[in-house]
Specification:
By secondary structure, the chain is an alpha/beta fold. Helix content is 37%, strand content 19%. The chain has a single domain, classed as 2-Layer Sandwich (Nucleotidyltransferase, domain 5). The chain has a 6-stranded mixed sheet with strand order 3-1-2-6-7-8. A two-stranded antiparallel sheet has the order 4-5.
Length: 239
């Protein structure tokens, strides 16, 4: 499971897209983490989850056998000029925020005789950005206006994906020097417990930027992609 978190006012109303995990700190653990920094700054946080992100790449590699190593996906993505209107809704275990539909199942739409493994790989990886966009929209409906994203996890080492994420959500994306922070986060928590660190703010000083991605996509192109995604989502929600 992959999480998106935002800092919000401690007195804010709990957004509709949340479940029982109503608040969480900025340190999140999982294959893909997205920490959102909205206009509001405070000490508590909101969490939304994507059920399938990095697991989608694992499915392409281990079940579909489209490639042997995850890093090969970047070359595949760059070989295509566009997604050829192929979309994958990776509802392999239902759909997470903001839909919360356990009965939904995966949908691959827009197939033609020209569709091949490359298009399916691209659709799978693009879906992570689209799902993140849906969470952003849910946050906006609750009065939050994200202005940047901090990401980590195996997927963000893919420069194409990181740029596409920035393009789709239309905010800057910051990738840290340490891409895999699951073990690092656990070590930080242990250090906080025994007094090596005084606070979460103290821990945050260890974060260091490796690369920044800035939106480059035209608004019209973004809108076209999201309309296609919305149609695919409706098909997945039929169940």
């Amino acid at each position: 499971m992959n999480f998106l978190a935002s800092s919000v006012s401690a007195s804010a109303v709990i957004p509709k897209y949340l479940t029982s995990a109503q608040a969480a700190p900025f340190l999140l653990f999982g294959p893909l983490k997205l920490v959102i920094k909205p206009v509001l700054e405070a000490s508590s946080g909101d969490v939304g989850s994507l059920f399938i992100a990095g697991a989608g790449v694992q499915w392409l590699r281990d079940r579909m056998k489209f490639f042997k190593k995850a890093f090969e996906t970047e070359k595949i993505l760059k070989s295509l000029k566009d997604n050829r209107d192929v979309y994958l809704v990776p509802a392999f275990t239902g759909m997470g925020a903001p839909y919360w539909n356990q009965q939904s199942r995966g949908v691959l739409s827009g197939l033609t005789r020209d569709t091949g493994p490359k298009e399916i790989v691209r659709a799978t990886i693009e879906s992570v950005a689209y799902q993140t966009h849906d969470l952003f929209e849910a946050m906006k409906h609750d009065g939050l206006r994200p202005r940047m994203v901090k990401v980590d996890g195996g997927m963000v080492m893919n420069n194409w994906f990181s740029q596409f994420l920035s393009d789709v959500v239309n905010v800057k994306v910051y990738r840290p020097k340490v891409h895999e922070t699951t073990a690092l986060g656990a070590a930080f928590m242990a250090g906080l417990k025994i007094g090596v660190y005084k606070s979460l703010k103290d821990i945050s000083k260890n974060w260091s930027l490796e690369k920044k991605f800035t939106p480059k996509m035209k608004n019209s192109d973004r809108k076209t992609l999201l309309v296609g995604w919305s149609k695919a989502i409706k098909r997945a929600l039929i169940n």
